[in-house]
Amino acid sequence: MDHPFYKQQAHEYYLKCHNLFEKELAASLPTPYPSVVSETSRNDYVYFEPLHIDQKKLTGPDLESLLNVSFESPSLFPDKNTYYIYDMSQLKEIPYNTLMFQLNEAPKKSMETTTIIMNRYFESRRVPYTLMNLMGEPLGYKQMLPYVFGDTCFVPESGATKKPASWYALHSVSEYVCHAKEKEVSLYSGHYPLLTLKTDKSSFEEQLNRSAHLYYIQSRLRIEYLQQHGSIKMEPKAENLLDRFINTRSYHMPNYTAFDLIFYFIVYCTHKNLTLILGPDNPYLDEVKERFKFPPFPLN
Asked: Were both Cys, which of 32, 93, 101, 156 would link to 160 (CB 3.0–4.6 Å)?
């Protein structure tokens, strides 16, 4: 791509796709963007601004127009720039199962289901989705668990263990605005609108709280691990919605250690297994559980 000819070809191809999108989707974008082509003096790359996706318009002609300007791919690979993975498996009139949106690229469509795509992503991170369920259950979260690992967070819109689901990313979000009358929530990255969800404020904030809770616990474990190996503690910066949510709420928790956290999870699993082995009606169950007491602080 260093040769001027290839740069010009890429630039012209992008402008063609952009003009087609502007023509076919102008009615579905309430705030048309200015020029979305910019070049840096250092690298001379072509950049895409993220598309604003309104869930209630992902149907009929609007969806067809999006598919027309999307690149077909046999396999999709989500990353930190992915902000929405739309499940189309229930739309029998559509020959594709998934539509994926990126911050810095054109949309991509695939016949793969979101289940296959996300499981591949989990395997690439070497942390299976089942671990989120194991971490969430002791905290009181048993359904629709977000996938939180490191600085990334993907949230399912419905139960994702048994059937495909749509996923949106919170790590790319800096602000959100709730529309009570429409029962919608709009997600923003900086001043760019990314996604308008068909959900009410309480449902969205419940998932935000779950995500931030898991993110906070993992951060505590990571910080203490780094400290024990001589690394300098780095305080989290309010760079995304999760950091900001944690800093404003703080969960009213003590400054517990990694050992406290691990011990809590061990005791929870012990109680659960004792109940399975002895039976919930066993008269000695409570007496045995007393030998494995929880730490003196709440986690949820």
From this structure: 156
